[in-house]
Specification:
The protein is α/β, with parallel strands linked by helices and 218 residues long. It is 44% helix and 13% strand. β3, α3 and β4 form a beta-alpha-beta unit.
């Protein structure tokens, strides 16, 4: 019994050390590509906005609104030319991507500059589909700093020359719970990369340089 307990403790400690090491590794390797000022970014053709929760009235949650607002600012400055809005539209009554599109339309962005990825169910799906379906080669991803390392890690490993703009106008508390979630999500991301996980949904190529209307009204 004592030996079994020692083995169990060893395995638990080993798992915790591995999770912490992976967190440090992802943070350090992603850090050079994450900026907190738009002026520090190299212009890119595509701005990837990662989805987050939408309210029942179809308005954007604060965390999602900040992502879209940051991408809109980059667009107006000429830092990006087209939007790839990637989020969850897996059910008819829940739609992150069209909520983002309507928000941008209301602020003067034409449909022609907005591509919608309706199957961006998580960060991995968003990034692999950005590269394989939308044929994105260089991009800036817009999300909060706690999420940026994983987004950059995934995007760059999947073949995108990816930079990140850390969207943090307010404090998203509780930070500790968000951080703990990222530790587990980093493990999932590492596994997905190494087993070459396919996205939940695949599809025909729809180049980001082409006709955005093919991605609308789905």
């Amino acid at each position: 019994m004592k030996r079994a307990l020692n083995i169990l403790v060893f395995l638990v400690v080993g798992a915790l050390v591995s999770v912490i090491f992976l967190q440090v590794f992802i943070n350090q390797t992603s850090a050079p590509y994450i900026k907190s000022e738009l002026s520090a970014l190299q212009p890119a053709y595509t701005g990837i906005v990662l989805g987050a929760s939408v309210r029942p009235d179809k308005s954007l949650s604060p965390i999602l609104k900040d992502r879209v607002d940051a991408a809109l600012k980059a667009y107006r400055l000429g830092t990006i030319k087209r939007f790839l809005l990637s989020g969850d539209h897996g059910q008819a009554d829940y739609d992150e991507v069209n909520a983002m599109k309507i928000y941008l339309n209301d602020r003067g962005v034409p449909d022609g500059d907005i591509f919608l990825d309706h199957a961006g169910f998580d960060t991995y799906d968003s990034m692999i589909r950005a590269h394989s379906i939308y044929q994105v080669n260089d991009a800036i991803v817009f999300t909060q700093s706690f999420h940026q390392p994983r987004a950059i890690f995934l995007g760059r490993h999947l073949g995108i020359n990816l930079q990140g703009y850390a969207v943090d106008p307010i404090d998203y508390s509780p930070a500790s719970s968000l951080q703990r979630r990222e530790w587990l999500a980093n493990v999932k991301a590492w596994i997905e990369i190494h087993i070459e996980q396919r996205p939940t949904f695949e599809g025909d190529a729809t180049p980001i340089t082409g006709d955005s209307s093919l991605t609308h009204d789905q």
